Amino acid sequence: MNIPVFDLKRQYENLKTEIDNAFKSVFEKGIFVLGENVKLFEEEFADYLGAGFAVGVGSGTEALHLSLEACDIGYGDEVITVPNTAVPTISAISFAGAKPVFVDITQDTYTMDLRKVEEKITDKTKAILPVHLYGHSTEMEQIMKLAKAHNLRVIEDACQSHGAKYNNKNAGTIGDMGCFSFYPTKNLGAYGDGGMVVTNNEELYKKLIMLRNYGEVKKFTSKIEGFNSRLDEIQAAVLRVKLRYLDEWTNKRREIATMYHQLLYNSNVQLPCERQWAKHVYHLFVIRVNKRDALKDYLQERGVGTQIHYPIPIHLQEAYKELGHKAGDFPISERNAEEILSLPIYPELTTEEIETVASLITEFQNI
């Protein structure tokens, strides 16, 4: 049996007629940049999340970058975030000219350890950037209290957490701005790059609209320095179709996660947790296990695809050596990087496939 870690072909086959019609509609109208599908998708996505405004941009990375720019965060400023994230989180901070300042994570949710945040706040700190990782939200209450006490912005990286909740509020709608990616493998994915910023602040919204399109207030009239970062019309049309299925897909992911939990309950792997204040949307199903690399190879040899999200914490990446960190600075992130493994999880995964993955993990541990 071949069980890939992701399989977007299955999703397309289920939605083929609707997706093809969405493509055809865009081609027939001949408008490919900032057309009606972008406008409508922004409205629909904001409504889905319960946010006041949404701005479609070129990628999740650019969503984060433009959010920082909208808050006037730049050279000499510091942004507090975590080292166990995708490089794009940190790229966005670098694009703005600011410096990432890391805090380690909790052992259970893999999200920011709030006990370690305040000690990192200096007079250069301008924002806290929590990452809602793998589909589980960060504990936001304390972050918002700290931000208010120190007059800081909060920009949520919700690129892996479409529909995830914290105390019944959607991830991405709690801070000043929330940033989403529509990379193809996301829970809500396009057929290329795409991103979105949501906010309840109208002033920030208006600034984001300018920033994504050369700083223009109208065509050929730039009020501020801006960028070229626009969600394109084709991707917006596809995402409008897929958004209608997002809750159904989330429920299916949660069902699959429950099956994994039941099948692996007595194994020696650490399974994902779901804190009482969270709704996990399982963008990834990440286990922690001894002999991770050997297990990964064992599964691969038997047709099961897996991935490691992420094998090298940011502070140990060569690209960020100038930050001056060393091994041992963030021990939980570093240990996790040696033990975590992402199992296949997507709505089209079958019961037989789930049972096969779990059976092989148990079999490996009994060798």
Content of β-strand: 5-15%
CATH superfamily of the largest domain: Type I PLP-dependent aspartate aminotransferase-like (Major domain)
Distance between the termini: 21 Å
Overall 3D shape: globular
Provide the residue-averaged pLDDT. 97
Specify the number of helices: 11
Sheet with the most strands? 7 strands, mixed
How would you explain this protein's 3D organization?
- This protein is of the alpha/beta class.
- It has two domains: 229 residues, Aspartate Aminotransferase, domain 2; 120 residues, Alpha-Beta Complex (Aspartate Aminotransferase, domain 1).
- The strands form four sheets. A seven-stranded mixed β-sheet has the order 1-9-8-5-4-2-3, sandwiched between helices. A three-stranded antiparallel β-sheet has the order 7-6-12, with no helix packed on it. Strands 10-11 form a two-stranded antiparallel ribbon.
- The chain starts with 7 loop residues before the first helix and ends with a helix.
Write a short abstract of this structure.
The protein is α/β, with parallel strands linked by helices and 367 residues long. Helix content is 39%, strand content 14%.
Which features does this protein show?
single chain; 367 residues; alpha/beta; Aspartate Aminotransferase, domain 2; Aspartate Aminotransferase, domain 1; 2 domains; 3-stranded antiparallel sheet
